[in-house]
What does this fold into?
Amino acid sequence: MELPKGISEKSTINEIMVTYGEPTDKDISEDFSYYKYGDIFESVEFSFNGDRLTRLKVEYEPDDLK
It folds into this structure.
């Protein structure tokens, strides 16, 4: 799966933040991190366990990520 601007399940946290900027919401702990771009019902969410992407959720791709 590839999102606009070349982001995919192989992308790192750094690549996502450089490409999409600061997330609208994030939660970071020692082993887990979560980043959300967009608003309710129109968002892209990334969850990482360490450096490994474990979850990618897309709800009606936000216009500002295109």
